[in-house]
RRM domain-containing protein (Paramecium octaurelia), 350 residues
Amino acid sequence: MLSCSAPILPETWTNSNQLMLSLIAPPENLSPEYFSSLLNQYGPVQQVKILNKSLMDFKVFVEMGNSEAAKLAKQFLDQLSSNFIKCSYYHDEKQFETGSQNNCSFEIIGDSTVSSQKCQHQTSLNEILYEDDYRSLSVKTLPLNHKTVKSSQLIQPTQTLCVSGIKGKEIDAKKLYNIFSNFGNIDKILLIKIKNFAFVKYLKNDNAMFVFQNCQQLEFFDSTISISYASDDSIDKLIGLDTLYQEQDYYIGSEDTDRFNCNNKMILLPPSQVLHISNLKKVSSNAETMWDVFSEFGVVQAVKVLNTQFKFMCLIKMETLKQALEVMALMHNEEIDNRNVQISFTKAKI
């Protein structure tokens, strides 16, 4: 029998060589080989078993060769600082055994063949919310003599990102759109507040990769975010489960809101304390108005007016990057003197 209800041990208990990984919305191409190749640099990996829990969350059981290897592997996984994957020590006196239970199939990965048999399963809200109350759908076992594959061959960048660590009553999908649309045209965003994460799907892989590389550990409102790749159908899997999100938590991009013309080359800039304010009225494009408007969101350190005969723009520098991100979230495409202003990051200096 497969026991999934054994207690998760305190992190201070370091004698176990067994780990339980909990993942939310992982890419579809995750496999036992991936986890083995990821963790075998910290010691021998005796077995890896993927316990499919639900559409949006599944467990991975890893048995390392000894407790020291498990400790090192756990330290590595903890450093990822992501809600996408959590690692805990695990202990069960009984070994996992293959067999059948509650009409679930058990898949055993041999040296060269993989069974394609799968269980049919309907995702429920309870399965997503209550991580300890789960049941196994299938088990994939990696034997000791299985040849591993480099993880880079198994995990590729996707158009969709899982942005973890999102907190704060101020946050909704549109505010996230105001920030992340700076880095490419967005297909859609879905915010799951009860899990403190959002899916952001770009139209191009390159844009998602830029965000993955340049936006880790950003802070805004009560959030400190970490970013992982997710399956490109992650949002589609959750649409319709309206008890998970409210209307303002789902945002669909369009040509009307896209920041970039698809016919022109995109110039992507990382987040910056200096913001470019455009589409201003002449009456608004002055230092005094800029100080008055944006001081509401933090300390304005400097303002520079960039007016021409027909265009009225300004640069403002906020005291911190956090304040600049909050200005972006709250004020992009909002009205100043009855005109919707455009705000973007810039490499310009003041």
Remarks:
- Residues 52 and 315 are 51 Å apart (CA to CA).
